[in-house]
């Protein structure tokens, strides 16, 4: 009886707490939220760029930022193509982890060219089922570049899933690249994973 | 070489390019899963040219570029610091490309772009000491409107045609290959200058392109040497960027609706 009562009281307390907490409708993403996500992500990236750490440490931190703000799962799936649907769960998880590290190194090496630059987030608009956040990258001695980020909440969280730099779409180029690597490994996902751990 | 001597050569080049552009391409149009159309009926030939270009880049262009870059140009620069010799060459060469860009702006029915490029040319050629400096951007906020005859053809409704990788010049399409030849023919500088001056202008513009390669070499190296299939990667990136510049990009891709990679019944 006592335990029951305690359970009941506990339940009441939970309901009370839940009522006090701001109720979040199933991840309502809006333009402001998408804009803020990219602002935060860029702020963290520039902190790393300006930290002057050794490259290897920077790449690890880029990987962590990528994992925090991007939908790594859908990006990794899209890059792998139809093989993603046939993949064994454990093999896919290992591939996804290797892919994340590869992105951190490959794009990290590019980010180092961004020292002394700035990226200004200029707006956000709804597009299809997601949001497009527009920004302009100001690099030394180069015409400003348009960089667009596609942000979605369809993973259950607000995350970006594509970056388009002057029309060059990251998902499309990684699909071609990972596809070529998979073909080179004769379609073996574990072999691709091993190659990705070395690449980038 | 005088202008009148050069014209027949250019005319022959133009005729060849036009023939290439008009030859009935079998056009097996394929699309990437992200909806980017790739029309590459000459892939076998293009891949041979790519292998040649890649070798040229590794043996000649990259070593020269790295030497040029060795003079500290690669390090992040304080925007107020004086520019180095490499940037001066890039600026001067780009400045000389402005008159033909202005002509193209007019042909495209974009007089404002034409005017901006012409004003830039006037300001930078004088105040900017022959285009070495860029006061048009720095003091007047007048940036370049990059264009070429390939874009003019696109504005006129000429289709892109097949993808081509040209020796030395790199990625192109049938439409852009014609554009590159026509740009040489309609460039007012080559009509106004005598042979030696025109040669100097041409040399400086080539040097400027090489300078760009030196400055942004890391990116090029990454694609050429770091890629599992550098031909396919170069083709895709170049086409996406070119179509973006010309306002011919396709539809935006949504991976969450891609049944090829996500099980639609899972969500």
From TrEMBL, chain A:
InterPro entries: MlaC/ttg2D, TAT_signal, TAT_signal_bac_arc, Tgt2/MlaC_sf. Gene3D superfamilies: Tgt2/MlaC. This is ABC transporter substrate-binding protein. PANTHER family: INTERMEMBRANE PHOSPHOLIPID TRANSPORT SYSTEM BINDING PROTEIN MLAC. It comes from the Bacteria. Transmembrane segments: none annotated.
């Amino acid at each position: 009886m006592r335990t029951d009562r305690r359970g009941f009281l506990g339940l009441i307390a939970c309901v009370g707490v839940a009522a006090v907490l701001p109720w979040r409708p199933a991840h309502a993403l809006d333009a402001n939220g998408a804009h803020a996500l990219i602002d935060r992500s860029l702020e963290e990236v520039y902190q790393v760029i300006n930290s002057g750490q050794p490259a290897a440490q920077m790449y690890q931190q880029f990987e962590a930022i990528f994992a925090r703000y991007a939908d790594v799962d859908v990006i990794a799936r899209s890059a792998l193509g139809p093989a993603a649907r046939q993949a064994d769960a454990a093999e896919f998880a290992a591939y996804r982890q290797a892919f994340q590290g590869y992105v951190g190194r490959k794009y990290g090496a590019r980010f180092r060219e961004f020292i002394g630059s700035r990226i200004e987030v200029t707006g956000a608009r709804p597009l299809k089922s997601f949001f497009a956040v527009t920004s302009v990258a100001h690099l030394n001695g180069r015409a400003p570049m348009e960089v667009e980020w596609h942000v979605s909440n369809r993973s259950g969280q607000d995350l970006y899933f594509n970056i388009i730099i002057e029309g060059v779409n990251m998902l499309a180029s990684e699909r071609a690249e990972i596809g070529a690597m998979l073909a080179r490994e004769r379609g073996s996902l574990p072999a691709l994973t091993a190659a990705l751990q070395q690449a980038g | 070489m005088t202008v009148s001597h050069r014209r027949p050569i250019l005319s022959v080049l133009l005729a060849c390019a036009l023939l290439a552009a008009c030859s009935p391409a079998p056009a097996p149009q394929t699309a990437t899963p992200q909806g980017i159309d790739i029309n590459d009926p000459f892939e076998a030939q293009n891949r041979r040219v790519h292998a040649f270009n890649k070798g040229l880049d590794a043996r000649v262009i990259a070593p020269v570029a790295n030497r040029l870059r060795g003079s500290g140009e690669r390090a992040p620069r304080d925007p107020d610091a004086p520019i180095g010799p490499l940037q001066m060459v890039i600026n001067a060469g780009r400045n000389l490309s402005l008159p033909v860009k202005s002509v193209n702006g007019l042909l495209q029915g974009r007089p404002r772009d034409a005017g901006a490029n012409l004003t830039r040319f006037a300001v930078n050629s004088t105040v900017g000491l022959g285009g070495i400096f860029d006061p048009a951007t720095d003091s007047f906020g007048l940036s370049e409107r990059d264009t070429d005859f390939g874009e003019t053809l696109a504005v006129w409704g000429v289709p892109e045609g097949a993808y081509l990788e040209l020796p030395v010049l790199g990625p192109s399409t049938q439409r852009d290959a014609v554009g590159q030849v026509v740009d040489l023919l309609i460039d007012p500088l080559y009509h106004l200058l005598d042979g030696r001056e025109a040669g100097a202008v041409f040399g400086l513009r080539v040097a400027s392109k090489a300078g760009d390669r030196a400055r942004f070499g890391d990116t090029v190296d990454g694609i050429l040497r770091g890629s599992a299939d550098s031909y396919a990667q170069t083709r895709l990136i170049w086409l996406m960027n070119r179509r973006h510049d010309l306002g011919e990009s396709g539809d935006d891709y949504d991976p969450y609706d891609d049944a090829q990679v996500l099980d639609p019944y899972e969500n």
